[in-house]
Design brief:
alpha/beta; Aspartate Aminotransferase, domain 1; Aspartate Aminotransferase, domain 2; 2 domains; four-stranded antiparallel sheet; 15 strands
């Protein structure tokens, strides 16, 4: 293999949010990967480091071209230069957009279970969360369009945050579904903000559709947040982009990001993004194959050793959604038990909204040996958890 994803890199004592745990714990929770960034990216960053001067940075033409070319090649949709605005991250962008393009007390719609920070971006800015829960049939998720339209038609609902692909369920929304969302949003004058940070982390052979690429209706009523950070494991470099095709809407977003001072790059943000989109393709394809194999490892393990836990089929992200409904109604206690008794640190599903209460989220972006260690801990912990509950009932 040209790229090494099997070697475990010690991340303890490096200021890592993920690995700021005790020696006995194994963190498979927050969405960053335990793989070194692509050597092609590290080489470009080393050049920037060797220059030795880290003053204020501007956005060069190459940044726009690299993003535009990547989306055109990979996703068959050209992101034009005029549409793009640099931002320090998708989360800062979301918070700024909610704060500046909605009014205090208005509703912002989300489809739960969904990335927990969406709640923070809404509530922390004095807006109200409007949930349109996804429909789960015990195997997969779909949208209740009647409920979605009812929530969008509320006169207090002015914005919808779409997750495409969807975190934590790993679903790629197809073109027809996105078109229906776009049509309903436009019909009821609701702005769609599409978080597409996971768009490149699809299973081999699977492609995602950018919301703005679906049709003119979607393009003209949307803001898209993108970044190389999830894909290439660069979250700490604070580099992202906001894509806004409509010029009037784009001016409002530009003003929002600049007013909140989240539109200026650090010395490494732009070189990292350019290197990712210009030179990271081969590494990404190898990564996607590795993650897919990890996903199959989890599926086989659960089928053999933990049949009461159902792996929800997914097509994107390295975050697996585990249905633990046969074990408990709320995984908060199970998550705490696993961490205390086995050291396995995963995410309880309730933080992604009430529909996620009986699920766990598992990060599989790690070497296979680390993943297998985590699965053994999961088996041990669940076995002991069931035994404890059985004793308490007797």
């Amino acid at each position: 293999m040209k790229y090494d994803f099997d070697t475990a890199i010690d991340r303890r004592n490096t200021g890592s949010l993920k690995w700021d745990v005790t020696e006995a714990e194994l963190p498979l929770w927050v969405a960053d990967m335990d793989f070194q960034a692509a050597p092609e990216i590290r080489k470009e960053l080393q050049k920037r480091l060797d220059h030795g001067i880290f003053g204020y940075s501007v956005i060069p033409e190459e940044w726009y071209a690299a993003i535009g070319d990547w989306w055109e090649t990979r996703h068959h949709f050209r992101l034009e230069k005029d549409w793009l605005i640099f931002c320090t991250g998708v989360v800062p962008a979301l918070s700024s957009i909610v704060r500046k393009l909605t009014t205090v007390g208005e509703n912002v719609l989300i489809q739960t279970p969904v990335y927990n920070i969406f709640f923070h971006s809404i509530v922390n800015n004095g807006r109200t969360v409007s949930e349109s829960p996804l429909v789960y049939n015990g195997n997969s998720y779909s949208i209740d369009f009647a409920d979605l339209e009812a929530k969008l038609s509320d006169s207090q609902t002015t914005m919808m945050i779409l997750c495409n692909p969807h975190n934590p369920i790993g679903k790629i929304w197809d073109r027809e579904t996105l078109a229906r969302i776009g049509h309903l949003a436009a019909k009821h004058h609701v702005l769609v903000v599409s978080d597409e940070i996971h768009c490149d982390l699809t299973d081999p052979g699977k492609e995602y559709t950018p919301f703005a690429a679906v049709n003119e209706e979607c393009k003209s009523h949307s803001i898209t947040c993108i970044a190389p950070t999830k894909t290439f494991n660069l979250a700490g470099l604070q580099t992202a982009a906001v894509c806004v095709p409509d010029p009037v809407l784009r001016h409002k977003v530009w003003r929002a990001l600049n007013t909140d001072e989240v539109a200026e790059p650090n010395a490494f943000a732009v070189p990292a993004a350019i290197a990712s989109f210009r030179k990271g393709g081969d590494w990404l394809d190898a990564l996607r194959a590795y993650l897919y194999d990890n996903k199959q490892t989890v599926a086989a393990f659960l089928n053999e050793h933990l049949p009461k836990i159902r792996l929800v089929p997914s097509e994107a992200t390295y975050l697996l959604w585990l249905d633990c409904g046969a074990l408990c109604d709320d995984t908060a206690e199970l998550q705490r038990f696993l961490r205390k008794e086995t050291g396995l640190y995963v995410s309880a599903g309730g933080q992604y909204g009430r529909p996620g209460a009986c699920f766990l989220r598992l990060n599989i972006a790690c070497p296979k040996a680390t993943l297998k260690n985590g699965l053994r801990r999961l088996q041990d912990g669940v076995t002991r958890y069931v035994q404890q509950n059985d004793r308490s009932r007797n």
